[in-house]
C-alpha cells in the first residue's frame, strides 16, 4: 500500500514548517510528501529547495483548489493507493495518520477525515466561513458541534459520517478514479465543500474522531480579502444549486444579505454561481 501526503502552501512559511515536521514525525510514515507551492513570495521556495525529502511543485497561485488539484493529480498519476490531503496551516497530531488508516472501517470504498480542532481551545475549528444567518441551515453546522466529546458519544465505533475536507482528508485511488479531481476553477472557499458533496453522492465519508488534526479557528477576513469573498459567493451558490434541496430559498437569504450590505459589486459573483456548469 503506497501513500502520499499532499500539502498546499502559499505565503505561510512558519506554518508550513510546522505542518511538514508533523507529517515527518507521524507514527505511521507516508511514502512521499508532495508540496504544491502556489508561487509564495515569503521565502517558502528557498526553504523547500533545501529539504531533501520533499517533492516540490511550484505553480502560479491557483488557490487551495488549484493546489489540491495539482497535488492529488500528481500523486494519482504516480500510482499511489491513498492520498492524504491538507493545507499548510494544519498540523496533524503525532498519530493522526495512524488513526485514520487503522480504524475498523478502513476500506478503499470509503473516504476518511480527521476531526479538526483548534489547538488552543480544543474545540472544533470551523475553518469554512459562512454568513452568520445563512449557515444555520447548512449541513456542517447541523451535524457538527463545538463539543468533540458529544461527537464521540453519538458516533458509531469512533467514526462519524461526515468530513471537513482538505484538513487531513484521506482519499483512495478508487474514489479518485471515479470522482475525479477538485475543481481548480473554484480557487478557494467552497472548493473543498464541492468536492466533499461530489464524493458523498457515491461514497460514505467518515470523520475518525480519535484522529486529531489541528487547524486554527478561522477569523473573519471576508471584508479584508475580497477575492476570497467573491469566490465564496460564487461557489456556494453553485453548491446549493447542484447538491442541495431548496437551494432557491437558501440563496435568496444570501442575496438579501448582499443587497442590504450595499455591496452590489458582489451580485455579479452571485449570478456567476447560477451559470457554472
Features:
2 domains, Spore Coat Polysaccharide Biosynthesis Protein SpsA, Chain A, alpha/beta, 277 residues
Describe this structure in words.
This protein has 277 residues and is α/β, with parallel strands linked by helices. The protein has two domains: 3-214, Spore Coat Polysaccharide Biosynthesis Protein SpsA, Chain A, CATH 3.90.550.10; 226-275, no CATH class. The protein has helices spanning 13-24, 44-48, 63-77, 96-102, 139-143, 148-154, 173-179, 191-200, 226-243, 247-260, 267-275, and strands at 3-9, 32-37, 54-58, 82-87, 91-92, 110-117, 159-160, 167-172, 204-214. Strands 1, 2, 3, 4, 5, 6, 7, 8 and 9 form a nine-stranded mixed β-sheet that branches.
Overview in brief:
The protein has 277 residues and is α/β, with parallel strands linked by helices. The protein has two domains: 3-214, Spore Coat Polysaccharide Biosynthesis Protein SpsA, Chain A; 226-275, no CATH class. It has helices spanning 13-24, 44-48, 63-77, 96-102, 139-143, 148-154, 173-179, 191-200, 226-243, 247-260, 267-275; strands at residues 3-9, 32-37, 54-58, 82-87, 91-92, 110-117, 159-160, 167-172, 204-214.
